[in-house]
Amino acid sequence: MTDATATYTGPHGPKPKRRLSPTNIMLYGTLFVVAVYYLLPLYVMIVTSLKGMPEIRLGNVFAPPVEVTFEPWVKAWAEACTGINCDGLSRGFWNSVQILVPSVILSIAVASVNGYALANWKFKGSEVFFTILIFGAFIPYQVMIYPIVILLREAGEGISAVTGTNFRLMGSIWGLVIVHTIFGMPILTLLFRNYFTSVPEELFKAARVDGAGFWGIYFRIMLPMSLPIFVVAIILQVTGIWNDFLFGVIYTKPDTYPMTVQLNNIVNSVQGVKEYNVNMAATLLTGLVPLVIYFVSGKLFVRGIAAGAVKG
Predict the structure, then answer these.
(1) Stretch (H or E) spanning 166
(2) 65 in a structural domain
(3) Structural domain of residue 190, as residue ranges?
(4) Is the pTM of this model over 0.85?
């Protein structure tokens, strides 16, 4: 029995570390240097996009603008020339939106069902199928470019049921949507399978006992619990599809070029004066969408990676 009259000898345990210990100074110092290294180019882009060309020609790249002007942003959006068209990035922006939205929805919808089936509904040969699917994630895109060109050309010709005109997948937005959906499938299936594997099996068995089927369990149990991994998939797909240049320039045509291809045409234009402020504004406009999505859902992205991407 413990003696209630025992003398109190003070707190026990390790002594709290000093806030400014050498280890902390080195850690935060390294983080500060790395942050400056990555933020400095962004700072230069922003201040350059807010300057006029006479001020840029003075050569002080790091100086803030003496007179702030948004004219380069307006010109980059609506007036900059990309070939024979001088409507800026606006046309490419809407092309990118039309490519992005169906690509993200289709790839995530199909991959989530694939991952759910491979995790909870084992069938004969499922592991072999999963291995083959994941193997596709490691095939270089460049190897598949020409075969996909042939497939889109041969399989995508016909008459549109809506307009009644000739329709071709090669060179159209929907052809590029199919390409992005297919190439996003392997890694997304891996993410969803690992996440659904981490869900307690008892929930799945209880739903089966209650009579729920394949789609009932998917929509009523799996989807409500899977917000973090869906956010991870959305961020990965939005970033990859929006920033894509190679597929955009190969599988579309000038009228349907995405924003990145038009940005390349603006920056690498050899006609007229090189307008660095317009180039910087155009670059910032192009990268704005994935940047905003990441900052809005960054916490869920980390949760999804920690919960499902490293399990399985």
Answers:
(1) strand 166-168
(2) yes
(3) 92-257+288-309
(4) no
